Amino acid sequence: MVNQHKLSLVLSCLMFFPIIIYAQWEPDVRLTYDPMNSFMTWNNGKCIATVDSFVHVVWTDDRTGSYDWEIYYKRSTDYGVNWSEDIRLTNTPGWARWGAIAVSGPIVHVVWEDARSDQRAIYYRRSTDAGLNWQEEIRITAQNGWSYNPAIAVCESLVFVVFDDDRAGWEIYYAHSTDAGISWEPDAPLTYDDDRASWFPSVGVVDSVVHVVWMDSRDGNWEIYYKQSSDAGRTWGPDMRLTYSVHSSNPCISASDSFVYVVWYGDYDGNSEICFTRSTNTGVTWDSVFRLTSDPSLSLWPSVAGSGGNVHIVWNDDRDGNMEIYYKKSTDAGENWSVDTRLTSDTAVSAYPSIAISGSYVNVVWQDGRDGGNSEIYYKRNPSGNNTIKEYSSPPTKNLPHLINYPNPFSIKTTILFNLPVHSFVSLKIYDVQGREVRNLVCKELSAGNYMIDWNPENLSSGIYFCQLRTNRFVDTRRMVLLK
Asked: Cβ neighbours of residue 279 under 8 Å, at least 6 residues apart?
């Protein structure tokens, strides 16, 4: 065991020689291995969904050849460490493509665009045992018209699907189930733009409030519009225009509590950039548009996931000479943003990312051409990227910052508490006995007060760890014992 003097020396050295053995973002994991192409959905229907330790992924796959696309699925039950075999969800005489996924507890919901008949239709399939077995598929769109680009969201027993449809001109339609996908209400239109097109919807659901965004050409150029139902899809409010730009395309929405976050790419200075807006009052009013990227290259296909005031965004960007996946984060509901973080680094195209969060984990999937020219599905995670700091009531102490954790020893989770006498920049990190950083829990400015954060040491072995709180003025270290 390392004595206290040796630990102090090691931690002091880390101030000047930071160790990067345990980066927050872990290495890329290849999920598919076949000689044909595997595709992510490019219309902002999410291809990844998470709950607790389960990670669920769907994609479009051409492994049978001749553009005979089918929907495939796989899962991880241990936060993305190990993965099941690929499961083929469709076997159509035509093709099936652009799958989207959502999850609530053990029930996994998947929708896709299907061409088994002369028309394009939206089909649905679910699993009630966390993806182990799958029930029969259901066609959820009407017999007339062609339906494209589905997106899905779920909140307990409410399942909501949106798509674009040409049965009466290009409009946004929706279908919903109130019994977790067992039965479905008839689909119905959400937009009525006559000769103008409405495309690429995205949907989020919190309790009985349903939020939908899409791109719309009714104003002579493409803009982002929003619509809400506060009664689980029975009635709808008016269309709300969110953007006023030259061109805005492919929005993605995430709703969490009263926060609603929307990202898309829009034209600025003759270039495509990632843009963001938010509502802090459940979609009643919206902030001004905020531009998240500013570089002379293309920034496209963003995906967003929100968890209270934490907002996570991924997109693909060719600022490096080829398309790569980039990420950025806000911990204050979009007021301020981290610097751009490049998640991929290879000479091939990395594109169409989807993002999902569960607990402290941030999970990303995308398609990547690094494996000999054919596109494969890749996965990456940050185990501590969504840590939530909570302030608790009690006057901050006026002496040195105090750092404790309970329980200690612990086996599954420990709660770390610390207090700040004054406003300060705070770093809270976990180190092993060799002085190597294994988790970066906090790195931000905080006001004076008392704070708590839960730490779940997934995939770390039993042993002694040290939690270090570093502020502008003080350093405090806590010895912790993990017993598994």
From this structure: 259, 260, 285, 286, 287
Sheet containing strand 350-358, strands side by side: 29-30, 374-382, 361-371, 350-358
pLDDT for position 412: 81
pLDDT in tens, 30-52: 999 988 899 999 888 899 999 98
Specify the pLDDT at position 363: 97
* Closest residue by Cα to residue 126 from 101, 144, 148, 143: 101
pLDDT score for 401: 57
In which residue ranges of the chain is pLDDT below 70?
1-23, 66, 194, 393-401, 458-459
Residue 33: is it exposed, middle or buried by C-beta count within 10 angstroms (0-12/13-18/19+)? Answer: exposed
CA distance 162 to 385: 30
**Residues present in the chain in total:** 484
Reference 45, options 193, 160, 157, 130; nearest CA is 160
pLDDT of residue 18: 32
Q: CATH class for domain 29-382?
A: mainly beta
Do residues 125 and 132 make contact, with C-beta atoms less than 8 angstroms apart? no
Domain ranges for the chain: 4-21+388-482, 29-382
Superfamily of the domain at 4-21+388-482: Macroglobulin (MG2) domain (2.60.40.1930)
Q: Which candidate, 334, 379, 338, 335, places its Cα nearest to that of 355? A: 379
CB 178 within 8 A of CB 158: yes
